[in-house]
Amino acid sequence: MPCVSVTINFLNSERYLKESIESVFSQTFKDWELLLVDDGSADKSTEIALLYVNEYPDKVHYFTHEGFENRGAAASRNLGMRHACGEFVAFLDSDDVWHPNKLEEQVFVLRAYPQAAMVYGPGYFFYDAKGGGKQHDFMQPLGINGTRVIEPPSLFFAFIQNFNITPSPSGILLRHEPIKHLDGFVEDFRGIYQVVDDQVFYAKVTLHYPVYVDTRCWYHYRLHSDSCGAQTKQKKSMFQAQVKYFRWLKDYIKTLPTSISKQVGHKVDRYLWESLMDEIMTRQYNGHWIIRPLRKRIALYQEMISHWRKSASGFQIQWFISFVIWLLFPYCLVRPIKFVKREGFLGAVHRIIRSLSL
User: Fold this and answer.
1) Phi, psi (degrees; rounded to nearest 5) at 206
2) 336: domain range?
3) Which of 25, 140, 190, 202 is most buried, judged by most C-beta within 10 A?
């Protein structure tokens, strides 16, 4: 029985798949099995996967959905988990790359902290060499102070407040046994909604189990025009994905104990409201100080209120007051207030100066 079951799900990934697989073989920790899940590829990535299966039949295994269907990343990761035999479970996106000590150090952490069901660290985001070279690589912000075990639901609140600090599935290691009880990834989140399927999974983990957060970086996250995030950004559908996520949360928290669901539900409503207000400002001003015509503004507010009524648990006076403030005051005054609240005074000043210099 292997110690770690590694799942690489792929779809038309012939450009990057071999590099991802080789980063698993380069691990200093050798007690693993590799599960390659083909999500209906039409390029040479299937051929690449089968070459490794034929060369390493005891270490590498190949799976597809019934009828060679394309069912999305969530369903593909779940298929890998159903066949996993290891004490721990890891994922690697087919365009990402692990650092050689990733498994060794993460296995050590979970064995040292048996109460933790998951461990993760920040990723190093790098742009594909064929992407033009104008952007700069960067380290993902951790958003958490120090290296420590975080009890639920603290990490859940941190993730829904700032989507940018959530790790890629490539950066986590999970304890297999407790994760079985969470029913894996939610397979409804595919297509334009796939960009938040990991966020949905982390909500279940962080609401039920402690998580070890580490400052060490264990993987490279590749940014390129064909990635899920880039496609979502091009289609301008991130907001729709976030709203679907919050609506799923609304139903999911009803399954939690009453004491927890009441606390969690209130904060989910709060962060949903902030997302709606951000969307209003983005669309209303469209990056400028010019206000849209009144007719379009009214239609926009009606759309946001409709999202609120479908997604939130009830009316709160503080959200109504904040809506009036966003409605009446200029964007250039309200936006700094939001940044001060979220990032502190110096952080807000830095962000505003940076935005004005662009």
Assistant:
1) -75, -15
2) 272-357
3) 202
